[in-house]
Amino acid sequence: MKDDPSTVNGAETLMLGEMLTLPQNFGNIFLGETFSSYISVHNDSNQIVKDILVKADLQTSSQRLNLSASSAAVTELKPDCCIDDVIHHEVKEIGTHILVCAVSYTTQMGEKMYFRKFFKFQTDEVFLEAQIQNITTSPMFMEKVSLEPSIMYNVAELNTVDTSGERASTFGSRTYLQPMDTRQYLYCLKPKQEFAEKAGVIKGVTVIGKLDIVWKTNLGERGRLQTSQLQRMAPGYGDVRLSLETIPDTVSLEEPFNITCKITNCSERTMDLVLEMCNTSSIHWCGVSGRQLGKLHPSSSLHLALTLLSSVQGLQSVSGLRLTDTFLKRTYEYDDIAQVCVVSSEVKKIKEEVL
C-alpha cells in the first residue's frame, strides 16, 4: 500500500481497511465454484482476552453449514495479535448465501462478549457442462454444439476466448474429434429478470433447455443429434418463503430496532395470510400480533417492516414469526431467521465514538 500511488498517504500504517475486507453484499458467485474466504480476528485493545471462539457458518435457503476448521476455543489472545482461518465451500445451490461470522470471548473482568458479521452473495447462474465423445472408428468434424435455453433462461457460451479482438474456439481452428476423444462444452444460464424476481416460478424440476449437436464424417456425411429437454432440480422453499432484506449488525439493549422481511408465495394458489409475533426469552416484538396481511397471489411478494427489541445482551437469534393461511388453516413457523449482536447503550456509544 505504501508503494501504490492510488492509496491515501499513510494508509499502510492503519489497520485493515475496507479495500481489503468483504463488503456486506459482495456480488455473485457461480454454481459449482468454490467459495473461499480468509477470516482474521484481531485484538485491537490493550488487554488480553480469553476463551476466544470463532465460528463461521454459511446460511443457504435450505440449510446452515458450519465451515470452521476447529470448534475449540483459543485460550487467550494478546493485544495486536490475530486468530486466522481459511474456509472453503463448494456452492451447490442457487439463491442467496449468507456467511455468518460470530466471535465470543471473555474480558479480563470476566465479562462474556459477543459480536458477529454478515456477508451475503447471490448464486443465480447455473453452469452446464456437456461432455461429447466420438465413439466411432473415424474422425468427425464438429460443425455445431449449441444449447437452446428454455424461456426462463438466457445462455452464454463459454467455449471461445478473445484473441486480438476476435472470438476464437477454445479447441483451436481445427474442430476435428478423433475416435474415442472427448470434449467438454460449457454454458452459463441465468434466469431472465421477469422470472428471477419471482422465487416461486423457478422451483422443483425445471427445464433449462436442450443441446443441438451437428457433425460431419470423414466422407462429408452430416449427422445431427438433438437431446430432449434437460432438467434440473431447483431448491425448494415450501409454500411460503420468508427472507430478511435488512437487519442491523449491532443493536442496543432494550432499544427498538427495525428489520425488513420479504414474504413470497411459492405455491400455486392464493393465500390469505395472518402474521403472529411470538416473544422468546430474549426477543420481544413490538406491534400488534395477529395482523391481517391480506391476499397474496402465486409467485407474488410483499415487504414487511417489523420492530423488535432484545432484553438480553450477546448474540441473539431472531425467532417467533408465524404465518397462517386462513384458507387452509395452515401455520408456517419461522425461527432462527437471523442473529443480531446486542450490546449495552454505553458500549455502542463508545464504539461509535471510536469509529
From TrEMBL:
Record-level GO cellular component terms: TRAPPIII protein complex
InterPro entries, A to Z: TRAPPC13, TRAPPC13_C, TRAPPC13_M
Domain Trafficking protein particle complex subunit 13 C-terminal intervals: 248-342
Ranges for domain Trafficking protein particle complex subunit 13 middle: 117-235
Cleavable signal peptide: none
Alphabetized PANTHER family for the sequence: TRAFFICKING PROTEIN PARTICLE COMPLEX SUBUNIT 13
Protein name, UniProt field: Trafficking protein particle complex subunit 13
